[in-house]
Amino acid sequence: MPRLSKEQKEKIRELQEKGISDAEISKMLGISYFTVYCQRPEVKERKREYMREYYQRPEVKERIKKRMREYWKKYYQRPEVKERKREYYQKRKLEKKGGGGLEGIALSEI
Questions:
Q1: Looking at the 3D structure of the chain, how many domains does it have?
Q2: Phi-psi region of 50 (alpha: psi -120 to 50; beta: other; left: phi over 0)
């Protein structure tokens, strides 16, 4: 479902400030009632507060850690990432040997 444009959000706020009900605004603009309702500042603030509290729960933190571990594990298995990692460590190895910079050296020569 497409997001509301800035103009739509402004129009909803303007109509809400005039005291028009969310149901009427919904019908006027052809947008769902819930979408209109969620544009109210007090609703947005309650949602922000709930989300702040939600992400502080230990079970949620653990679930996020688990998903991130899975993501990074898959990420490092990608061929292009493995190649960048290999090139990075080859470059560091040469620099430690005192090879200085890699100016003028093609990777195929490494």
A1: 2
A2: alpha
pLDDT band at 66 (very low <50, low <70, confident <90, very high): very high
Range of the domain at 90: 58-97
Which residue has better confidence, 40 or 109? Answer: 40
If asked whether residues 49 and 10 sit together in one domain, one would say yes
Domain presence at residue 106: no
pTM to 2 decimals?
A: 0.53
Q: Is the pLDDT of residue 68 over 90?
A: yes
Look-up of token digits 């400030």:
17
Long-range CB contacts for residues 7-13, cutoff 8 Å, separation at least 24: 9/39, 12/36, 12/39, 13/39
Q: Which residues contact 78 (CB under 8 A, 6 or more apart)?
A: none
- Report CA Rg, the chain: 26
Which tokens sit at 45? 């603030």
Report the 10 Å Cβ neighbour count for 92: 10
Q: How confident is the model at residue 103, as a pLDDT?
A: 56
